[in-house]
């Protein structure tokens, strides 16, 4: 399913119809409870895309980057740190700080908070 997405070819490119709705504008207006969770090595949605989305939202979102691979971070991933941070947010709506979660080790993932640059 994500093979075509990572090659930037989707069925939509071949549809003969115009979109039924205008594109959604992404900007700094709107709710401030946006959480972006993303793996560093996601073939379907590259990490740089998450960085650009974060910039468009300005001060609205928080971002959790995960030193992991694949398209599923939450539920499908096995990083204890990001699972805990995201579940706490979803259940209690407590916004986490921007964080970088290292790969899970036998003792659990350890998030690094703050304005640290994530590796590329």
UniProtKB/TrEMBL annotation:
Residues 5-99 form the Peptidase S33 tripeptidyl aminopeptidase-like C-terminal domain. InterPro entries: Pept_S33_TAP-like_C. It comes from the Bacteria. This is Peptidase S33 tripeptidyl aminopeptidase-like C-terminal domain-containing protein.
